[in-house]
Fold these 4 entries.
Entry 1:
Amino acid sequence: MNRTRLLMIGALALALGVFASLFVYKNLQGRAGATAEAGSDVIVAANDIQVGARIEEHDVRIAKLPPSGLPGGIYSKRSQVLGRGVVIPIAKGEFILPSKLAAENAGSGLPSLIPPGMRAVSVRVNDIVSVAGFVGPGTRVDVLLTGTPAGAAESQTTTVLQNVAVIAAGHTLERNAAGEAQNTPVITLLVSPDDAERLTLASNEGRIQLSLRNPLDTRQDEVAAAGAKGLYKGISAPVAVVAPRPRPVKKTVAPLPPPSTFNVEVYQGDKKPDVVKCSEQGCGDSK
């Protein structure tokens, strides 16, 4: 009898444990479902999207995420991003934010990367000018010009532009898949309208050279032009010889010669003639 009672108590305890476990499981599942239903629609990248690409249907997907963890300006509809150009690389799973897209109706490709008020100017380069191909999209460079200024006797090198952004290399807006540098004959720089004129003039006046710089170094330095004579030690620049000023010449007035005199004899009847001294100024008294 005691054994039967113990079995009944054990069975009842087991049933109560199962019931409690099911209750807790259903409660937690209901809370998780309520949390998922409270999430907001968010547009994220379905694959890697490169700079200059146009966002297509297969590039995006909708995810449900808690609103508290979302950044500002997030998109929730596909129609808000389809057809927009990409100005910053977007990795798979990243949020698609307004700062990563070109303006509406700006299109895709290189034109979408040009901000208002700026210009894209291409310059022809080679392996030396492009720093062995390491000048590529996303880097920043200084533009140096080597030439002979008008009226100068030697060639000079001067820094024309500083901290200029490179937005394209050839027809490519990105490095290759391995991230390696690529040698291209044309580099496209992003400059202001005034700098576009200076860059075009520099490419026609002499030889240009690109100097690669750290993208975190945005300082603009005052760099003086370098001449050929400054490259060699022990050779100083020629000292300009100042011609001595001519001394003023004092004008001396020669003294006038004494007036010439002569004697004039004056006869009066049979008297002894009188002698009168005369000069160019007239005659004096007779003697």
Entry 2:
Amino acid sequence: MKIIESYILRRSAKMVLIALLPVLAIIWTTQVLSRVNLVTDSGQSMGSFMLLASCIVPMVLPLVLPFATVIGVTQTLTTMNTDSELTVIEASGASRWTIIKPVLILAAAMSVLSFTVDNGIEPKVRVTFRQLIASAYADLLSSVIEEKTFRQIDTGLYIQISQRLAGRTLLGLFISDTRNPNYQLIYYAREGAVDEKGTALIMRDGEVHRKTLTGDVSVVRFDSYSFDLSNFSQSRGQATLQPTDRTLPFLWSPDPSDPRFQKVPGEFRAELHRRLTEWCFPLVYALIGLLAAGDARSQREARIHPMVSALGIAFALRWASFYFSNQVESSAAYIPFMYAVPILAISLTTFMLLRGKRLGKAAKLSTSFAEKVETLQEKLAERATKRL
């Protein structure tokens, strides 16, 4: 590798890290803060909290990495153009490959990293994450919640107990459940207990009040009632696994007896093809950055900032990928479109780079076309007004 190529590669890699680390830090902080109450309320150790916090990074890295790549590449090339470095490179007779080669090396490394994290590390981390959450909730009701204090164990779900006895027995139960926006449920019971699996709260000798949006209240007395806790109170070491938690071989050949697969097979199909397509987005975004800022241009040239153009196209491609991924859940006919998004983007950007095209010219053509359409609409509106 030439010295100038190594120089571009180092600068681009540093800029990618500069763009990546702050975003990861912000997302990590928000996710950790949302889990602090769970850890403190369930009496987990500091080690469990740190393990829970460390699991968040691999879960968000594949999503942030492509955007960090396009920001790093575009910003590096824009700065080099501002400092007239791209002009010097072109004036020295160097080919465009001198600039393209280090960017492609960086993009290939980011794509390999994205594939490794998305298909190798993230599924295992997600399973560990869900097991930690399930373990934290397992003893939340039976051993951690203090007597005569209200505790929020889920959004819109509060519980209060008067006394705790031996054998997992709870006296004086009060539960307020407002998770459903159409009605509110309030439970009273003399006593209750969490079953051994931690999936249900068995209440005895009580009543449940149901209030609708119209103000109608219905009261039902019961001798025994089972309140479902399976969504957030799993047995230790067990958790409900989603398609995002599964490995690539499992998604390729799912177990027909898996209850989640039997319920929503489309989610497994969409997750499989998402894993096989989204890993190449760092390469796609790097090519977009090259197309937006890879040429030496005069500072007096009136144009949209390369970062705006590159990010606009990147967000559009990401939106298209998400849209077709959601459609695949309901219909397998959209699978080719998921692969068409990155393939067409790579083909088009590669063609424009080989032909020496600029993103600015394409933007000017689109702007000119839009102006012509607007002018035609104005003329048609004037003619319609005259006729009226």
Entry 3:
Amino acid sequence: MTRPIVGIIGNSYLINDEYPAHAGGTMNSEAIAQVSGCLPLLIPSDPRLVSVAELMDACDGFLFTGGRPNVHPEEYGEAETEAHGVFDRARDAVALPLIRACVEAGQPVFGVCRGFQEVNVAMGGTLYPEIRDLPGRDNHRMPPDGTLEEKFALRHTVRFTKGGVFARLMGAEEVMTNTLHGQGIKTAGAGVVIDGHAPDGTPEAIYVEGAKGFTLSVQWHPEWNAANDPVSRPLFTAFGQAVRAFADARRGLRASA
């Protein structure tokens, strides 16, 4: 049986500080293949190479991954400052219109970390450049030292809205997650429902109200240990089910055309 295809939004890197490459974390592909049950396909996020229409036709759903570059503040009407960090304008140019088009079409999207922030910005929301600089907020950044296991270790709780989408999916109103991000949601975009918060009030789980397809996104990194983690596995399983349903419906429409 042919697996539905999930496009994984890649990031731009320089290998050895000189060779340009598009890349994505192996754990993202593993989560899509092993937990979602879909075929992972890495997308070169550059509008010179791909178009939104082509991507939507080629893929059944999309995973918007984390990445070191941040969404450029011009995308939400603010001036660039040093606190905003580094950027990937080519990814901005692909990811943001792709999210809007998928939400409109009901094509499944799953945002993780930067991808979570992209969903909010795509819908008209804004971001704080650095959460740890805000009064009363914790440092949500990745620990600078230690093994991968230590960097992706569970570090804080996330409390979901009672009876909300995430609480029903998880079967719990509070879960433990990792945290490896610097920025965070300031104002929610149109239709964006903040359905979970960290103890310091930082938004951690969102979806787009009224969307025809899967739009759940999280600020943490569920791709780490996705096959075994009791919080990660339901997210990737539900995403895979949504992608499969979309693919089946689209095949049915094409067959009857």
Entry 4:
Amino acid sequence: MARLNAAETQVYDRIRSAIGDRQLLPGQRLREVELCRIFDTTRGTIRKVLARLAFDGLVDHQPNRGASVAQPTVKDAADLFVARHCIERAIAREAAARIDDASAAHLRAHIDKERAAHDAGDRQRMIALSGEFHLLLAQISGNTVLRRYLADLVARESLIIQLYEKPDQGSCSHGEHAGIVEALLAGNEAALDAVIAAHIDGIASSLDLEPVHPARPSLEEVFGSR
């Protein structure tokens, strides 16, 4: 996979963030001409960006239909949660060995932001902050490879949750995040494994594995027009 240049990376980051924040929905068409106009760029740039997103598992290419946001299957969902169990437990163990007062305070401040978003009923911000919490743990672990893998899983999970989440379910609880921080500080590996496993199982249990089909905003509504 060829590297993206700075301009291509900017477009890639915008589209990837829109998928991760659940602004672009599973199955939504990503028309090259429309994206060229929105981002004021060339078709070559858009094609490279979409190819990279397809490599990441976030975009599907279909013959005679072009690109669309990926629609993970039930099997994809099951595989993802197995992977998250393995990766997040490894991240948590490394983070527990490196966490200090400053990083613990950073995590708690982040949880305060999650709580404020919850209290304000700002679901979009809750979604973004929830994923960021797990990436902060990976950052504290110091393992850049695991952090990269986790970032991919968090982005793919957003599509799975959009398709399969039960009504009125939250995919990630700030209260459970607080419990993870306390387990990290306690330094008990078995207890930490248990709280991470319970947290991920809780996310999985919020899914009913029956797809829903919410209304899709237009590309211009997500990115604006130029």
